[in-house]
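Limitations
The structure tokens in this dataset are predictions for the assembled complex, not deposited experimental models. Users should treat interface geometry with appropriate caution, especially where small molecules or nucleic acid strands are included. An illustrative entry is reproduced here so readers can see what is and is not provided.
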Amino acid sequence: MTAPGLHVFALPGMGEVRPGDDLVALVLATGVELLHGDILVVTSKIVSKAEGRYVQAADREAAITAETVRLVASRTHDGHTMRIVENRLGMVAAAAGVDASNTPDGWVLLLPEDPDRSARALAAGLRAATGAEVGVLLSDTLGRPWREGQTDVAIGGGGVHMVADLRGTTDQAGKVLSVTTPCVADELAAAADLVKGKASGNPVAVVRGRGDLVGPLDLPGASSIVRGADRDLFWLGTAEALDQGYRDGYAAARAELSPPEQKDAT
Amino acid sequence: MTAPGLHVFALPGMGEVRPGDDLVALVLATGVELLHGDILVVTSKIVSKAEGRYVQAADREAAITAETVRLVASRTHDGHTMRIVENRLGMVAAAAGVDASNTPDGWVLLLPEDPDRSARALAAGLRAATGAEVGVLLSDTLGRPWREGQTDVAIGGGGVHMVADLRGTTDQAGKVLSVTTPCVADELAAAADLVKGKASGNPVAVVRGRGDLVGPLDLPGASSIVRGADRDLFWLGTAEALDQGYRDGYAAARAELSPPEQKDAT
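Predicted assembly:
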């Protein structure tokens, strides 16, 4: 780095990842020299591949259902229904995160079984092998309400602070930044996507220059940045909530207004 | 840069921005040498300051109302109501983007009047002054559903591609990436936030290494990545939609079930 700041670069030559592959060995085989404070952002798909999380494409809809805890919203377009769901990790994601891109023909991939555990294991392995205290994030590509396009976010974390908690610190004018908690993990994943690219086949990037965000392996993982439905203002899609409210309001009015004999009949 | 990839660095020494200030001159006064393809990510707040978009803090709630096109969701906590609204720019944002941090005591700041226009003007000025084809993004900090913390996104753009349209391109396995349109503008804003910081007073960062995303000044701006309510599955908060549905369902059942004489009475 010739100036202070952040340096973000992809690891070329990772090659195709196969079930059972050792990702620590694959990363080190690229010849990258990892430094203290480096943060590796690893496309979660290669972790899924190493973990053998393949499902036959014919079973894709069943796989999405199996990964789904709760339907949040859906839209049918040209006969195809797109489901946005809360998956078993608590994440709200289209198709529960089940992915058909960059997979062999006829197969789809589930998300890693436990992305935080996988990220911690990879960070631990790289720390042991290199002696450098590095952090690891697993990334996935998500759409979002209100804005077009997708961005990469962190779905697993090992040895990296997820959120830079500024509550209680002051701004330049001396005022307390009371509600500002930048989700640095998602910002790191986004920065990494700018050098990995979707089509280029470079599934791992290194972010160098924010070593202050690297810490012990038992730091909270990316599950800590998933907001539970009970604390979210958008826990159900608008159309679904309008429908549910309508049914409830209709039933309440019926119960109030129907004569007793009619009530018995319903 | 000693290796390929992205270099992201803040411009130190920008100083406080005052109404009427020339941002082109302030950026150049830092001594930064801008290169062809550099993307400057400018915290929208300093553009608001240069444009004199101050409103007295006592009028904050009225200012939010004035900037609001439509209430999307609200939550009352400890007697304070937080409003998530669609603002006049189409953006869905808490408090309509009206901001009280990093402002002089007693004042709040509105968003720039037309962030895309401001970004284009800044890009045009920097191109004219330096001869380097640079792009400009204006950034703001937004919360999002389902995930904790905030990330920086692009709310204005001049001479930068907002979305890398991969539709029709193929992945490593030769499959068409049919639905992948990474919002690179938001990813660039996120990357820049990692070097600017909220409390450090470095409101401008340069992202170097994605010159392929820089283009003519008449490229679509950040307004193009705002998704209209008519195409969004979360255009109204869940509680608000449940309430609205309930009222509609209740009224429909009443209309159906009430005897004629009772209908007249309501």
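Some entries come with short summary sentences. For this one: Helices of chain A lie at 23-29, 44-50, 60-67, 115-130, 184-196, 238-257, 260-265.
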